[in-house]
């Protein structure tokens, strides 16, 4: 009886130990079961999130590259259309309509953005215009054999300015046989401009000047023949012509300055599109080398 009791007692003790071991094993198993999958799931979510962000960034970069390629293609199309128009002098109604459509497409890439004066600053060469006051110069040069109209520039000076600056309309012109071809003299119309809104600027014209007169070799020979000693008077005449500069102010105490609204419809590092408000015509400019004037 005693031995049987001892047997059952040992069996009970062993049973309790077995339960304790099983309990510990179950706790370890449950801990591994509950914790490890949660950590793994969190890492998976984080990985998916990072992968999605990288994929989104790559997609955005691809779209930006495609948009830039499309923009450059549209700009090239515009320049190609105006190439044979002699800066707007020779155009048909259909050509003007096609040019207008091409301009609107390019302008759409920059719509709504405020003008960046740091990009505007510099020299721009006229490639096309429908402005009557500029076309009359081209028409006069085409009719009059004694007049040549060379390159036309707009030079903006607005560094360190936030709401305006200075603009100079620079016209290179010449009189054949008297002045150097296309670069005989420079006519400059200066104006101050102020930003009225994100895209509109107001021009206040101040002065018209004539300078940089370069006479032809033929005229120099008449004034100071090479076969004769150059007299002091002859040299003085040549020096006077070369350094001559005439300035006519547009403003005066008795009258207000002439002004006008100008809408800058597109601007980037190498192209500027503008529209004179009130039916004054459109302008297409491309970036040019710095001009001293």
Automatic annotation (TrEMBL):
It comes from Anisodus tanguticus. It is found in: Plastid. The lineage of its organism: Eukaryota, Viridiplantae, Streptophyta, Embryophyta, Tracheophyta. Keywords: Plastid, Transit peptide. This is Plastid lipid-associated protein/fibrillin conserved domain-containing protein. It comes from the Eukaryota. Its main location: plastid. Pfam families: PAP_fibrillin (PF04755). Residues 75-285 form the Plastid lipid-associated protein/fibrillin conserved domain. PANTHER family: PLASTID-LIPID-ASSOCIATED PROTEIN 4, CHLOROPLASTIC-RELATED. InterPro entries: PAP (IPR039633), PAP/fibrillin_dom (IPR006843). GO terms for cellular component: plastid.
